[in-house]
């Protein structure tokens, strides 16, 4: 089996399984205590990956927020925050967005061969553009990240990216935080889309931990045999 980073999928959802609302306004699904937990997980990773849609819609900074955690990373000879990674089909990303403009860690953009030229024209000053082949496959992407020194990867969405990682069976654990309310419209973004998932009624995922964090609940699932090695 090719080497790949230990991969953690992380997201927050509503009680009816949505990542956000049906409008452009950002829907807050977590709370301060859980955001601190996420910050600690980020600080232990070498890279954070989000899809291009998340870069455009949420404009995330993807930085370690806590000063003490940043200092610990510096003491280990690491940048204050993990590298940032995104996947894009058409390279329609703004070089001025927070993904590229904040933090001193490396930024990597994976795109299909047909979009490499446009991506490099738009983003070469702020990121390394990687040719992902005819169609970017997350299995090959994670192997490439391993070759670049990434040993622990955190995937923070959105739904299309989570679907790709789960259906490709390259996730080792899932952190699913459930907020105590409903979104109530099918126009909102779901946690995952359609796909052939390895976990189904005949092969149930292993629930490794449940934890109440204020008014939300963390469900932590072991998705591979590697889970116990790093838990």
In round numbers, the mean pLDDT is 95
Q: What is the rounded distance between the termini?
A: 21 Å
Which stretches are poorly predicted, pLDDT < 50 over at least 5 residues?
Answer: none
Question: In percent, how much strand structure appears in the residues?
Answer: 15-25%
Strand order in space, largest sheet = 5-4-3-2-6-1-7-9-8
How many strands, what sense, and barrel or not for the largest sheet?
Answer: 9 strands, mixed
Rg, nearest Å: 17 Å
Number of strands: 9
Helix-strand makeup class: alpha/beta
Total of DSSP H or I helical runs spanning 4+ residues: 8
- Which percent bin holds the helix content? 25-40%
Looking at how many chains there are and whether they match, the oligomeric state comes to: single chain
What does this structure look like?
With 231 residues, the protein is of the alpha/beta class. It is built from eight helices and nine strands. It has helices at 32-43, 52-58, 67-75, 98-101, 116-123, 138-147, 159-167, 227-230, and strands at residues 6-13, 47-51, 83-87, 107-111, 128-131, 152-155, 173-178, 206-213, 216-222. Strands 5-4-3-2-6-1-7-9-8 form a nine-stranded mixed sheet. A hairpin with a 2-residue loop joins strand 8 and strand 9. The longest helix has 12 residues, at 32-43. The radius of gyration is 17 Å and the shape is globular.
């Amino acid at each position: 089996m090719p080497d790949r980073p230990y991969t953690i999928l992380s997201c927050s959802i509503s009680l009816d399984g949505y990542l956000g609302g049906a409008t452009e306004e950002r829907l807050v699904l977590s709370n301060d205590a859980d955001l601190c937990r996420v910050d600690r997980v980020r600080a232990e990773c070498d890279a954070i990956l989000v899809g291009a849609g998340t870069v455009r819609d949420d404009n995330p900074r993807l930085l370690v927020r806590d000063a003490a955690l940043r200092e610990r990373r510096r003491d280990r000879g690491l940048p204050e925050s993990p590298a940032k990674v995104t996947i894009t089909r058409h390279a329609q990303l703004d070089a001025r967005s927070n993904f590229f403009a904040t933090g001193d860690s490396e930024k990597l953009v994976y795109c299909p061969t047909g979009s490499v030229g446009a991506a490099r024209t738009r983003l070469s000053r702020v990121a390394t553009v990687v040719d992902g082949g005819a169609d970017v496959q997350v299995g090959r992407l994670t192997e490439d990240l391993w070759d670049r020194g990434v040993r622990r990867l955190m995937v923070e969405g959105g739904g299309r990216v989570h679907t790709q990682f789960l259906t490709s069976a390259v996730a080792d654990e899932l952190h699913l935080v459930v907020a105590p309310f409903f979104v109530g419209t099918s126009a909102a973004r779901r946690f995952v889309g359609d796909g052939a998932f390895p976990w189904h009624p005949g092969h149930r995922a292993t629930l490794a931990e449940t934890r109440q964090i204020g008014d939300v609940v963390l469900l932590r699932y072991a998705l591979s045999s590697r889970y116990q090695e790093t838990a």
